[in-house]
Design brief:
The complex is a heterodimer of chains A (about 120) and B (about 110). By secondary structure, chain A is mainly beta. Helices cover about 0% and strands about 50% of the residues of chain A. Chain B has about 110 residues and is mainly β. Chain B is about 0% helix and about 55% strand. In chain B, a hairpin with a 2-residue loop joins strand 6 and strand 7. Classes of the chains: A mainly beta (about 120), B mainly beta (about 110). The interface between A and B is medium-sized, with 25 and 27 residues.
């Protein structure tokens, strides 16, 4: 079975631009979470979606938004990019969003560089 | 606010030696995760610890959880070069909606020297 997939792998953007990152969860998984990992730090939680609804939001500005589609794939959008948005963006999928389905599987990540 | 502290942040050890990485967290939780990350790569799940006293072992790595002390340890036995990586612990809030929102420590960068 395919794991979590993310696209693109790398991208370079200029300050002020907008970016869209994509994630496809493991087949059968209905929950997708997004994390930002700045170089040298641990990942930070951005959003969690389950059944197309936002189920959690981390401490990130409104420039960050996300959505989940009927096929459970997800997009993360970041507007008005800042240099500080440069990071590895990780997507994690899980069967559910609470209860006993606790395993989370991370994708390979998208490396975003803002110049 | 849930806080997770790991120590040490950097660890250089010789092959064949033993060492322990510590992970302390600030509030009640019933799930603790350990991940490995190689440079430029994503996170690889090592262990999920679900209850007080839980102990799991895989090869040269053993993880344990003490929920009363809010402490987890990752013990490395007879280190080999292949274990060189950054190790993260992550904690989720107590059971309930939102309990998948992981809070990560800063990571422990392990270098195993021949």
């Amino acid at each position: 079975d395919a794991g979590v997939t993310q696209s693109p792998t790398h991208l370079i953007k200029t300050r002020g631009q907008q970016v869209t990152l994509r994630c496809s969860p493991i087949s059968g998984h209905k929950s997708v979470s997004w994390y930002q990992q700045v170089l040298g730090q641990g990942p930070q939680f951005i959003f969690q979606y389950y059944e197309k609804e936002e189920r959690g939001r981390g401490n990130f500005p409104d420039r960050f938004s996300a959505r989940q589609f009927p096929n459970y794939s997800s997009e993360l959008n970041v507007n008005a990019l800042l240099l500080g948005d440069s990071a590895l963006y990780l997507c994690a999928s899980s069967l559910g969003y609470w209860g006993q389905d606790y395993e989370q599987y991370f994708g390979p990540g998208t490396r975003l560089t803002v110049t | 606010e849930l806080k997770v502290e790991q120590n040490p942040l950097f660890l250089s050890m010789q092959e064949g030696k033993n060492y322990t990485i510590y992970c302390n967290y600030s509030t009640t939780s019933d799930r603790l995760y350990w991940y490995r990350q190689d440079p430029g790569k994503s996170l690889e799940s090592l262990f999920v610890l679900l209850s007080n006293g839980a102990v799991k072992q895989e090869g040269r790595l053993m993880a344990s959880l003490d929920t009363k002390a809010r402490l987890s340890t990752l013990h490395i036995t007879a280190a080999v070069h292949d274990l060189s990586a950054t190790y993260f612990c992550a904690v989720s809030p107590a059971s309930g909606a939102g309990s998948y929102q992981l809070t990560f420590g800063k990571g422990t960068k392990l270098s195993v020297i021949p």
